[in-house]
Amino acid sequence: MVQDWSLTILIVPILNFPSMSGYGMGLLTWLNVPQIYQNYLLMTMSFVMCVAIVHIFENRFYQLFALQTIWSKFRIPFIIINYTLSFSINMPIALAVPQDQKTELVNVFLVSSHDYSIRPIIVFRGFPT
After folding, report:
1. Domain ranges of the chain
2. pTM
3. What are the TM regions of this chain, as residue ranges (predicted)?
4. At 35, which helix (H) or strand (E)?
């Protein structure tokens, strides 16, 4: 449910193809939350949803087959590690986004037209080889 709300109300990602770029048009954009935090939230909620599905299947396995086994000792650390990794795996990506310093120069030298909307766009690209 949180994944659905983050996609349809909070962020509403609009993708620009064929370049891997996009921007958000949701409630968080209206509240001036930076784009990188919105992307981190979206990616983290996707990972948490996957971990929750794994946890549902693990709980079913535990209840049916592993109540009196060694798995009962490793179960809680397994769940804690999974949720910790789901929140922290995206941190290096979110912290490695460079600051956009050329935008101020473009806004100074170019006159903005009302025909175009100026929005913060995040561009996904690979590392140079």
Report:
1. 2-123
2. 0.72
3. 7-31, 37-57, 78-97
4. helix 35-65
